[in-house]
Amino acid sequence: MIDTPKDIHLFWHTFNTKNVWISSFEKILFSFVDMLACVFMQKLVKSTFLLNLWIFNPLTIQVSTRGSSDTIIVLLIYVILYLLKKESYVLAALIYGFTSLQILISQKECKINDILIYLGLISGLFIALLIFFHLIYEEFLYQTYLYHFTRIDNRHNFSTYFYQIYLSFESITRTQTTLTYLPKFLIVILAGLKYYRDLPFAMLIQTLGFVVFNKVQTAQYFVCWIALIPLALQNTKMNNKEILMLSVIWLILEVQSNFGSYYLEIQGKDVFTMIFVQCVIFFLSNTYLMIKMIENRKPSEIYKIKMD
């Protein structure tokens, strides 16, 4: 007997918003959130062309209308960036989630006692919440959030790790799992250190790098970094034609990567080698895209967080 949505095998996505009375509740909710995210995008993105890359992107439309919650993340990202641009650091930090140390960035006169108070409040609240969830909602906490840190998926996805995981699913060691985290964490750290004064671009490279090198990679993962393109590429050396061409090529490669999954999952054919080759091609295209954006980046004056 299934008491809650989380009892369903492999029901990992957005079960917290399931509505038993309205079958399309999630689709309606996340489509509305998507439109709300566009409102905040318009406040920050001056280029209509770049804005349309998100609004009329068939991938992002499909993800929202199928009931995936990734547009909530997009909305929160743009709300935070909007508040930071308005220098509302306290509110932005609260929305970001207890990262109140960002408040200190804008404070020139900050006593050591104030820092200790912030650290004490944040640490105390975090520990209290951790204990609370562990004692009362341990299963909920794991199924909703912690599961993704240990997730090993041997089903077809866009990751280059997929085939290796499929072949050695029963014998994967903890060391192997840990090593897969190193490339993406290295990109996140280096991009943050290199581009911290150009926050949208730093977030774009961090998110894209994290997704590209992740051991599990599905279509909704792309939404998080695609959403940052309109804001991060407002001041790039590439013209609109080049950006459009790269976008179309990427979309074609993303679609062709699904051919293998069709033959495997629908036709039941042994096409694992073909899928692996497609994953490698898609990985190389994403890596090239990331390099291309870095090479054509110009110091952004459109959006710049004050750090001093």
TrEMBL record:
<keyword id="KW-0337">GPI-anchor biosynthesis</keyword>
<dbReference type="GO" id="GO:0051751">
    <property type="term" value="F:alpha-1,4-mannosyltransferase activity"/>
</dbReference>
<protein>
    <recommendedName>
        <fullName>GPI mannosyltransferase 1</fullName>
        <ecNumber>2.4.1.-</ecNumber>
    </recommendedName>
</protein>
<feature type="transmembrane region" description="Helical">
    <location>
        <begin position="271"/>
        <end position="291"/>
    </location>
</feature>
<comment type="pathway">
    <text>Glycolipid biosynthesis; glycosylphosphatidylinositol-anchor biosynthesis.</text>
</comment>
<dbReference type="GO" id="GO:1990529">
    <property type="term" value="C:glycosylphosphatidylinositol-mannosyltransferase I complex"/>
</dbReference>
<comment type="function">
    <text>Catalytic subunit of the glycosylphosphatidylinositol-mannosyltransferase I complex which catalyzes the transfer of the first mannose, via an alpha-1,4 bond from a dolichol-phosphate-mannose (Dol-P-Man) to the glucosaminyl acyl phosphatidylinositol (GlcN-(acyl)PI) intermediate to generate alpha-D-Man-(1-&gt;4)-alpha-D-GlcN-(1-&gt;6)-(1-radyl,2-acyl-sn-glycero-3-phospho)-2-acyl-inositol and participates in the sixth step of the glycosylphosphatidylinositol-anchor biosynthesis.</text>
</comment>
<comment type="similarity">
    <text>Belongs to the PIGM family.</text>
</comment>
<feature type="transmembrane region" description="Helical">
    <location>
        <begin position="89"/>
        <end position="105"/>
    </location>
</feature>
<dbReference type="Pfam" id="PF05007">
    <property type="entry name" value="Mannosyl_trans"/>
</dbReference>
<dbReference type="GO" id="GO:0005789">
    <property type="term" value="C:endoplasmic reticulum membrane"/>
</dbReference>
<keyword id="KW-0472">Membrane</keyword>
<feature type="transmembrane region" description="Helical">
    <location>
        <begin position="20"/>
        <end position="42"/>
    </location>
</feature>
<keyword id="KW-1133">Transmembrane helix</keyword>
<feature type="transmembrane region" description="Helical">
    <location>
        <begin position="63"/>
        <end position="83"/>
    </location>
</feature>
<keyword id="KW-0812">Transmembrane</keyword>
<dbReference type="GO" id="GO:0004376">
    <property type="term" value="F:GPI mannosyltransferase activity"/>
</dbReference>
<feature type="transmembrane region" description="Helical">
    <location>
        <begin position="117"/>
        <end position="137"/>
    </location>
</feature>
<dbReference type="InterPro" id="IPR007704">
    <property type="entry name" value="PIG-M"/>
</dbReference>
<keyword id="KW-0256">Endoplasmic reticulum</keyword>
<dbReference type="GO" id="GO:0006506">
    <property type="term" value="P:GPI anchor biosynthetic process"/>
</dbReference>
<keyword id="KW-0328">Glycosyltransferase</keyword>
<dbReference type="GO" id="GO:0000030">
    <property type="term" value="F:mannosyltransferase activity"/>
</dbReference>
<keyword id="KW-0808">Transferase</keyword>
<feature type="transmembrane region" description="Helical">
    <location>
        <begin position="243"/>
        <end position="264"/>
    </location>
</feature>
